[in-house]
User: What shape does this take?
Amino acid sequence: MQLLIVNILLLTRSFELVVVYIQFSLLLCSLLTVIGVIVLRWNCPSLARPYKVWAYPLPPLIFAAITVWMMCFLLRSHPVESFAGLFTMLAGLLLYFVSGTKRQSADAIHAISSTR
Assistant: This one.
């Protein structure tokens, strides 16, 4: 789906808009990754940490704040491309959960049928 949107943008608009579309998606992924690390460290403090960040949690919070600021800037300056990137991410998330549900259902049916 992302390839289709990028090709349409390349054929109808400029390369800059394609970069904005991809940049918003990448910023969102980076933000979610950093938030995930913070949540994991908060929820599971006893896990082994092979790498320690100096002044934690300040660096990830600064990174998250700058990323949110950049995403807001992109939303204000290029709303169509930013929302297209957001829509692509949401469509991928929806497909992930739909495929995961089917896989879990198939595994459950297989487990039931193998016990009989």
Q: What stands out?
A: The chain has a mean pLDDT of 83. The first helix runs from residue 2 to 12. The chain has one domain: 2-115.
